[in-house]
Amino acid sequence: MRFLSAYMFPNWVEKFNIELMDGEAGPFVVNTVKQAMAARRSNMMASKSKTEKDLIDLMMEALDEWTAQERGNKANLVNEENAEVILIGSLLQFFLASQETTSSFSAFALYHIAKDPDVQERLQREIDDALARNNGIFSYSLVQEELPYLEMVVNESLRMYHPSDLERVCVKDYTLPGSDITIPKGVVIQVCEINCLLHEQFSVLFYSKVPTTVLHRSAEFFPKPETFDPELHFGPDSTFKREGGNAAFAFQPFGQGPRNCIGMRFALVQMKNTMAHLLAAYNISLSPDMMDPDRKIVYKRWSISWDAVGGIWLRFRQREHTALAPSA
Length: 328
Known about the structure:
Layout: H1 2-8, H2 10-15, H3 25-43, H4 55-70, H5 80-115, H6 117-133, H7 140-145, H8 148-160, E1 166-169, E2 174-175, E3 182-183, E4 188-191, E5 204-206, H9 212-216, H10 230-234, H11 247-250, H12 264-281, E6 282-286, E7 314-318
Parallel strand pairs: 4-5
Antiparallel strand pairs: 1-4, 2-3, 6-7
Helix pairs in contact: 3-5, 4-5, 5-6, 5-8, 5-12
């Protein structure tokens, strides 16, 4: 609820000093990152190399660059200490955004994999073949480059259960065509499925005009929008892959453009890695309760993400034969 309040009523959260994290969690994260940055500065060395930098290296470079540019700028209202806190906040948002996505949408993907034995068998064959070419050991390049069908499955899951809706700040007063509704400059606009309009004093406006679900469930871009079909919707011959296809912009689980989700790539790597490891070692099936043909997944109404009421229950049975190396 605290994170939902931050999205819906940011002015109130700031006014009443509402903490988004438990008392000890926030200072712990800030102090941990500051200590890591201080240790690297004192050692005068990068974490890996000049060409391979992790997130803390990039944060330190951004802070140094900002400090050099803003030093002596009296008009600047953000001092160096505050800039450091802002960067740490971006790091925290990076992990929070990707963690929620990974847990929720890996569950939905595994649900459909468990429901469709053909999809599961094809995935396991692809994973086994890739492991056989790599001595039974997973690597970043294996997961990212050698498992195309897994990428289709992940994309299809994100199409049907997208992580979030679009959110942008209005940069100038704008009157919606054909109405007397004016969006004031500075208001945060979230295009979602909640059909309501909040007063400008809340600094947030919800307007259900083009929610992401409408795009993702449109037969114009995805031939069987209500069916989980990775090959049809994201295969080599799909509308999404076809050169010049409009579906390239209709599919936006993490948004589009330079301000898309900060945790997108990290979330995708986590989802692929999680499913690849699980499918390499286990056969997955639905629990008896989930096998009821009349059972429908019902989503929590006011969740900021897609969460199933009652959860998703699966069974994991270890595979008799696996291509994993013994130590993997």
